[in-house]
Amino acid sequence: MASLSRDDVAHVAHLARLGLTEAELGRLEGELNHILDQYGRLTELDTDAIAPTAQTIELENILRDDVVAPSLSQAAALANAAAARDGFIVVSAVLDRGD
Amino acid sequence: MASDPTDLTRRYAHELADGLRSGAFSAREVTDAHLAAAERDNRGLHAWLTIDASTARRQADAADQTLAAARSEGPAALAALPALLGLPVALKDLVSVEGGQCTAGSRILEGYHAPYDAHITERLRASGAVLLGKTNMDEFAMGSSTEHSAFGPTSNPWDLDRVPGGSSGGSAAAVAAFNAPFGIGTDTGGSIRQPAGLCGIVGMKPTYGRVSRYGIVAFASSLDQIGPFARDSRDAAALLHAVAGRDERDSTSAPMPVPDSLLGLAASDDAAAGALRGKRLGLPREYFVAGMEPGVEARVREAVAALETAGAIVEEVSLPHTEYGLATYYIVAPAEASANLARYDGIRYGPGRRDGDTLANVLATRGEGFGAEVKRRIMLGTYALSAGYYDAFYLKAQKVRTLIKADFDRLWADGFDALVAPTSPTVAFRFGARLADPVAMYLSDACTLPVNMAGLPGVSIPCGLSEGLPVGLQLIGAPWTEAELFGLARGYEAITADAPWRSVEPAQLAQAADPAGPTPAERAAGLAA
Amino acid sequence: MTAAAPAASTALERYEAVIGIEIHCQLRTASKMFCSCSNAYDGAPPNSHTCPVCLGLPGALPTINRAAVEGVIATGIAIGATTPAATRWDRKNYFYPDLPKGYQISQYDLPLAAHGRLAVETSAGPFVVGIQRAHLEEDTAKLIHGSDADGRRTSLIDFNRSGAPLMEIVTEPSIRTAEQARRYAEELQLLLRTIGVSGADMERGQMRVEANVSLRPRGTEPFGTRVEVKNMNSFRSVERAIAFEIQRQAVALDAGEVLTQDTRGWDDNRGVTYVMRSKEDSHDYRYFPEPDLPPLRVAPEWIEAVRAGLPELPAARRARYVDALGLSAYDAGVIAGQPDLTTAFEAIRAAGPGLSPKEVANFVTGDYGRALNESAERGPAGLVGRTSAPELADLLGRVERGELSRTNAREVFASHAATGETAAAIVEEKGFHQISDSSALGATIEAVLAANPAAITDHRAGKPALGFLVGQVMKATRGQANAELAGKLLRERLDGAGDGPA
After folding, report:
1. Nearest chain C Cα to A72, which residue?
2. Closest Cβ–Cβ partner in B327, B328, B367 for A19
3. Mean pLDDT within B421-446
4. A96 contacts in B (CB within 8 Å)?
5. Higher pLDDT residue, A3 or B330?
6. Domain's final residue, options C281, C299, C332
């Protein structure tokens, strides 16, 4: 199965927005490849005709009526934020667009 | 240490409920006894992350008022009281309690106070339970030993150098150590059943959809279930009854009636044992895996023999895709987790970094806030979903999941009432024994995670000791058969009521209470050295 | 950069534009998409319409708003799309401070509506826009960029919009001109407003239009490098931005430049597009089925129930106005094109079935339309001011029967709209009774002729004086004369039908 290079590990870390140290990247390269090796055995199984299972519960059309319920107060919404001003949550300048 | 017969912490919850109704003792006394035990043991066991004594006492006092009013009204009023009135409960620290801290065992949620109650918190309040506090856990429920808690490990009361299992190790240790008569855990791949087995108590993962996940910090949404810990099956069933049922805020919570039989498990041993007669039980051969400790296998096979003696029909069966369960699980669960944990960016809550631009802050917040195991799983899951790998990993795993589920479905169609298996291949292991090799740690859940993959109910009950440490017996049922599983568990309790191991208390409770003894973190560090 | 106009005109002859339009519409529901917070947050204090779900708090779970689902099903029906029997939700994973969960719940490969179309009229004739899909998702929070007291650049986040229901409608790349793109957006807005699923106000961000524009040499098949254009906040800017982008690309291609797959913004003041971000690496959204939500199974009965609740659609309405009611294509387009006019036209016709449709159309597009522009007040039935359909029908009936002059009718309408009083009461109060009796007008006409000999001379010399004389008659009767009758009598009197009153 696929084997991850150091660059692959760094790319995945960026996708996941994990700021990792060089040491962590190095360790993860080894660990992830070790774990991926275990995944290899799945290729033994022929699953071409098998439907995927995303959920085990056989529910469908669980819908809510369009009725308004009370919201949190502004104070409660902001209470856990590290920085808030004038009712807004504040972050530093946004420079990147998420991918 | 011989236990004090007047010690309220040694009573089962159903005994406490009787005494509260009769007025033999008060809810305040029950709560105070458990708070004292929890506070006394928390240095040596570290089962608790938060003990909220003042709130618990307030709830106990309210329960006492309700009890007094009902007693003056008469037997009908007493009978109508909510089932858990005045009974203390330990909550895993991923259950939202309005105004309370909820860390999920992670630095990234340190200081976060939930502005709302989880569904089960509401249900517990409505049932009159006393919320003692929040228990330790592997960070975001990722782990099998509670060593991955950001706030230090928890010790197993049977051997303080060993893990209680995980991820719900704090709740399991608290119940095993008589800090609470029962507790709440969550189980994504075995996180209730495995610590229940390793701590010698009862723990159930209900059918997926049985208990609302609303307000429970998510790990893997299609696998997570909430369930009870207790020291016997009657108590566990009563706690499940209190929290189960449809919740319109969790779209995956099933509109299935919750059977009242959960509250009516046979009190008499004869009746409970009699219910085993004619039950058809499957013994999946794949669950007796390589690496299983002989003592564990021996206890499980003895338990199976006892069930047969009591009239159950046991047949060896095959779940042929079991060997693929681990790989499948370690794709599906991390993939879902990688999305579920994307919200922890330090912006709306949690200790976020603020010194750089937003991207740098998010990278630093997550890089510093998550522990090694969580990062490992986020990386695995992100990779399994990423462009070019989705089909080979995630989609493939979802298809193998279909095969794993079909293995079980065939047995239910064949008419089996339940399957009997070990809960864990080993007894509790020492701190650090599996930290170096993630795959070795993942193997702890080989017997439990297929049950999550298939969405089935499973319960672990104690079935004896191996080398002085508890062994868990796992009963697995068809969807929505929790009451039947508890009936079997109760039957097994009845036929082993007089077994000598039943009267053995966790061996190192006294050391745990030693105010000068080492903490679990110190023990772990000592073992690592 | 600015495009050199002469080069562009020749370049355009060599290239064909391939345009696809993506439109995000906020659905007009009471509550949000996946939680019960009020969707009416416009103008509310920041972060006052949030809950654990739309803030992405630990443990929160989504629940599906039925009305939003039915809004997309309704849209699908209106654009002739198919709704697959089974659809589901997917997580679209990306990080941005306005996306609280770190993923957006959306629909990836099984949208609620697929393969639709919308016909539009353009200056070059009718054109059918192919629509690939319409799906449901949740909106993001609102980011306001600024700086703090120390001059550090910061962004402020308001989560009120977070989780609002959003429908994304994506066309096939079948559009070829900027005008077609604008007309498509306009027609879609009308459609969404007609079926009531969205306010679709571009200025208020209820409808956000993005265009994918690429060029290819005429007569060739492969698509060129695609550029995404955003920040078009009006229909006019949609047309201008796309026209600019086509020219820019044509000139660049002619100059041998290699285009890059950028996202560009439209600067309405400067009339140019500019690079917002370049496509450094392609997005990897890591879509996977949303495990927190069971799939949707849209049974035919459900679709039929939604269909039964739909009003007449604009295209059918225009056709009916022309074919069955005899309106001009122009009037039909104007009335069907503005929901306020449609409402009034249909209500007055319902209250006065005997009225001439053309008379009602003239009134609605004339006096009534002006009143709509002058007053923001709308009654419960959606009519302007305090007007009511039966009174308006009564008013038009009086005109049609010749009991009330058009001049007086205008005054009665104004008074009715302001006070809500009945037409009958206003007519009575003001003493408006049209004089439609020749003998009653005779004396007035004689008096007007006597007072205006110069006009008589002019008329007889072939100069246009008749209108002036009719005006004098109207003035003398305080507007109550039947103007048509007065004209007829004046003509008879002046053109030698006799020397005196008949």
Report:
1. C51
2. B367
3. 90
4. 358-359
5. B330
6. C281
List the one residue out of B204, B272, B217 whose CA is nearest residue B244: B204
Phi, psi values for residue C297, rounded to 5° = -120, 110
Domain coordinates of chain A in residue numbers?
1-47
Do the Cβ atoms of C95 and A77 come within 8 Å?
no
Chains touching A, CB cut-off 8 Å, 3+ pairs: B, C
Tens-digit pLDDT profile for residues B297-356: 999 999 999 999 999 999 999 999 999 999 999 999 999 999 999 999 999 999 877 788
β-pairing, C153-158 with C165-171? unpaired
∠ CA C59-C64-C70, nearest 5°, is 170
Mean pLDDT over residues C160-178, rounded?
97
| Inter-chain touch B438–A35, beta carbons under 8 Å | yes
**Does the beta carbon of C146 lie under 8 angstroms from any beta carbon of chain A?**
no
The pLDDT of B248-260, averaged and rounded, is 96
Total number of domains constituting chain B: 2
Regarding whether B345 and B229 lie in a shared domain, the answer is no
Neighbours of chain C (3+ CB pairs under 8 A): A, B
Is B298 found in the same domain as B433? yes
Look at residues C106, C63, C61, C65 and name the one whose alpha carbon lies nearest to residue C87: C106
The pLDDT value given to residue C325: 96
Report residue C138: phi and psi, to 5°: -115, 145
b vs e for C275-304, b when ≥16 Cβ sit within 10 Å of the residue's Cβ?
A: eeeeeeeeebbbbbbbbbbbbbebeeebbe
Choosing from B92, B134, B205, B279, the catalytic residue is B92
B92 is catalytic: yes
Q: Report yes or no on C15 lying in a domain.
A: yes
Q: Do B400 and A42 touch (CB under 8 A)?
A: yes
What mean pLDDT value characterizes chain B? 96
Q: Which CATH number do you get for residue B283?
A: 3.90.1300.10
In a domain, C499, yes or no: no
Domain-embedded: residue C307 = no
Q: Please tell me which of the candidates A19, A59, A76 has its beta carbon nearest to residue B254.
A: A59
List chain C residues with CB under 8 Å of B114: 57-59
Contact B358 A82 (CB under 8 A): no
How far apart (Å, rounded) are the C-alpha atoms in residues B168 and C457? 109
Q: Do C352 and C262 belong together in one domain?
A: no
B106 given a catalytic annotation: no
- Domain of residue C480 covers 438-494
- Residues C264, C323, single domain; the answer is no
Supply the range of the domain harboring residue B392.
Answer: 325-399
pLDDT tens for each residue of C352-407: 999 999 999 999 999 999 999 998 899 989 999 999 999 999 999 998 887 888 88
Contact C57 B216 (CB under 8 A): no
- Enter the tokens of residue A32: 């992830």
| CATH 1.10.20.60 applies to domain A1-47 | yes
Q: Do B405 and A35 touch (CB under 8 A)?
A: no
Residue C287 lies in a domain: no
Q: Could you report the predicted ipTM of this complex, rounded to two decimals?
A: 0.96
Decide: B452 and B188 in contact? Cβ < 8 Å. Answer: yes
CA dihedral C81, C82, C88, C93 (to 10 degrees): -30
